[in-house]
Amino acid sequence: MDLLLPSWPLMAAFLAASVALAVTPGPAVVYIVTRTLAQGRGAGFASLGGVALGNLGNATGAALGLAALFAVSSLAFSVVKYAGAAYLVWLGIRALSAPAPRQADAHFGSASLPRIFRDGFLVALLNPKTAIFFAAFLPQFMDPVGSAAGQSLLLGAVFVFIAALTDAGYVLAAGLLAPLLLRMRGAAAAGRFVTAGAFIGLGVFTAMAGGRNR
Predict the structure, then answer these.
(1) What is the pLDDT of residue 182?
(2) Which residues fall within 8 angstroms of residue 192, CB to CB, at 6 or more apart?
(3) Considering the chain, what percentage of its residues have pLDDT values greater than 90?
């Protein structure tokens, strides 16, 4: 087991850095909060689960060396990045074209939790910058005498778990705000446009951004 764990000083530094990064809002947090406000707390947690699984896939890809492929192959990086951006834009268009819900409805739109989970998974997985982030961030806290792949997988899983906990806090906070928005006149109709705008904006941001934000 020692081959899979970095030294405790390195592990403590990793935990502190992970918490600091996880609490900082990024595109994933915006996506999860938007889902929560638009479709309720259940949809927020479904999105959180999908995003976490997609991030875990990217962490695994970094451990297997896929991040190195993205780093050296601009074509592979661009194909995956623009596929993810296009998917976000498509989610926005789908939200915009959905019929406006009635004020009596529980949320701005109906929530199919398996589909929302799938959307969150694909949005996170189709972000090659996340795999590159893991490839750049995790080795700083790895013990050179241990298993590189094992430590990378373990640290990646720990980071995803920490991020899921902080994202859950954002879901709970947004869930408290959603009923207040629903009581506002016209909020149900406006929520559809806000949701669509947020998804399309995230898609454009993903396509144009050069750096990596969680």
Answers:
(1) 63
(2) 38, 95, 96, 98, 100, 101, 108, 109
(3) 36
pLDDT band at 125 (very low <50, low <70, confident <90, very high): very high
Q: How far apart are CA 84 and CA 55, in angstroms?
A: 13
Look at residue 49 and tell me whether its pLDDT is greater than 70.
Answer: yes
Greatest Cα pair distance in the chain: 62
CA 134 to CA 155: how far, in whole Å?
A: 9
Task: Tell me the C-alpha to C-alpha distance, in Å, between residue 98 and each of 74, 109, 165.
Answer: 36, 8, 31
> What's this model's pTM, rounded to 2 decimal places?
0.80
Question: Which residues contact residue 187 at a Cβ distance below 8 angstroms, ignoring those fewer than 6 apart?
Answer: 108, 181
Place of tokens 């896939």: 57
Q: Which long-range contacts (CB under 8 A, 24 or more apart) does 113-118 make?
A: 113/42, 113/43, 113/46, 114/46, 116/35, 116/39, 116/43, 116/46, 116/47, 116/50, 117/46, 117/47, 117/49, 117/50, 118/50
Does the pLDDT of residue 70 top 80, yes or no? no
Residue type, 126: L
Residue 201 CB contacts under 8 Å (≥ 6 apart), including other chains: 92
**Average pLDDT, stretch 146-164?**
89
Residues 67-84, buried b or exposed e (16+ Cβ, 10 A)?
A: beebeeeeeebeebbeeb
